[in-house]
């Protein structure tokens, strides 16, 4: 048994880190999608590939937890982390998809701020995942993610207010509201994950 | 005790099968609702009845799991299956409701494709539930559901693109977007259930 | 140990009661927000304070459950109650926020009916939480919440029908739909909580 435990443990941390790295890639593609003159078809198809790769990592985690007798921390927390990371990828993929499908006539620059927040959250999460093994220096991570989520939320509300201020056509409002809502959803998921990590740390302490 | 287990077990499988049969009925009513010259008031009220019947089955499952000491598989998986099946019914009911409430001036034919996918998913799920007892021949089921969900997703995105292409009035876009989103939500739930069944199978294997 | 149990137990009930009291406050602020001539900026900022206070109570419950060896009832039920109560606050906060952000040119009177339902549900929930300790007289609570949710649902559907009847501009429909949907979401959460309480009662019985 002793032989079995370590590899299982480390594989969990490695899979979480892998999952977070997929998100860093996805966040980069999201930024590309918003750039002027982007080949949206091409970026969207690379986003789909990144999303499929992320799915495989998620399935590997679920399979791992279901086949492992002793998990490094509570099963429900592992599920929460795995599905939370998966949700972020889905929402970034959705945002990219909506930009491709809706072909909005205008993309307000505020959207780029949201995407910058997403990219920063992705980096912080990718750096934090490997530290789950030692459970060390994680508080800075969840504090900073919560700060970024508050900032993102304020700018999300500013964007909504400007969308509904009357300077946009109803169709553009419809399109842009869906897009910014996907971005906001991704940011919220980063906070959920940070909260789960905080919970795990509390249990371990 | 030996006497107690079997009936309890089989009652779970019977209740899941019952729940899935309610969904087959609901999917049929959804198809009726989209048919030309349908008496929408009448179909919607039959849908409400079907939804109430499904609720009772869900409550029976929850009551069963809460009162049962030994469950055929993990409680969280039983909850996931029960609430997932319930969610499908709610989303089909919502779609029927929205068609009644919004009175869309037009129902694009693509909606029928989505409903056909839902009907096929419902049949496959109803056929699979009784097989939970033996855990046999379930992989074809979840593979086919995943295939159907991908197909449904592609056509959902095509429908959104056409809704936002400019050929519809904003009010019609608002109405139809809600309706197709409920249909898409139902299809996604079928996939969630298939994934839960796959997880259960992995644990049992 | 015996010494440890009681205080822990009662602290859970106290925290749930506290959480529900925050919701009563929030529901009152929601009503103020809809009142003619309300200082929306001021009400919204008081709502944010109430929401932060509620968050702290939620975190206290989560921390408590994570640090407690013997919980008064199943951990997943405690999580469900805590996060459900938190969701209600978030949705009321969202509704207040949207009224502030969207500045709808009109607020149909039907919205006040929804808010009255929310206020009644909040009071009933606040009265019920302390009774979790004795598990007595809870059935009237969940039956009445279910009745109120049905009533709220009917009026929600009437509001949607009127929003889409053509007498509103697309932009107003977009704004009001989001607002009434947040209210409906809050009412649904009250029902979820009532259902969770019913489940707990079944397990205890």
TrEMBL record, chains A, B, C:
It comes from the Bacteria. InterPro entries: PhoU-like_sf, Put_Phosphate_transp_reg, UPF0111_domain. Belongs to the UPF0111 family. This is DUF47 domain-containing protein. It comes from Nocardioides daphniae.
């Amino acid at each position: 048994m002793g032989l079995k435990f370590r590899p299982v443990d480390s594989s969990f941390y490695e899979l979480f880190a892998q999952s977070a790295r997929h998100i860093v890639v996805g966040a980069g593609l999201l930024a590309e999608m918003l750039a002027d003159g982007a080949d949206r078809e091409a970026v969207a198809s690379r986003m789909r590939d990144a999303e499929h790769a992320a799915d495989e990592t998620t399935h590997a985690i679920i399979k791992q937890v279901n086949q492992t007798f002793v998990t490094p921390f509570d099963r429900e927390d592992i599920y929460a982390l795995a599905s939370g990371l998966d949700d972020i990828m889905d929402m970034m993929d959705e945002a990219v998809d909506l930009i491709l499908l809706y072909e909005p006539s205008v993309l307000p620059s505020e959207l780029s701020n949201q995407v910058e927040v997403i990219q920063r959250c992705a980096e912080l999460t990718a750096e934090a995942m490997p530290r789950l093994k030692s459970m060390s220096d994680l508080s800075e991570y969840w504090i900073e993610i919560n700060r970024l989520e508050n900032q993102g939320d304020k700018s999300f509300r500013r964007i909504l207010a400007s969308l509904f201020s009357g300077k946009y056509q109803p169709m553009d409002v419809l399109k842009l509201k869906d897009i910014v809502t996907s971005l906001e959803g991704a940011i919220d998921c980063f906070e959920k994950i940070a909260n789960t990590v905080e919970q795990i740390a509390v249990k371990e302490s």
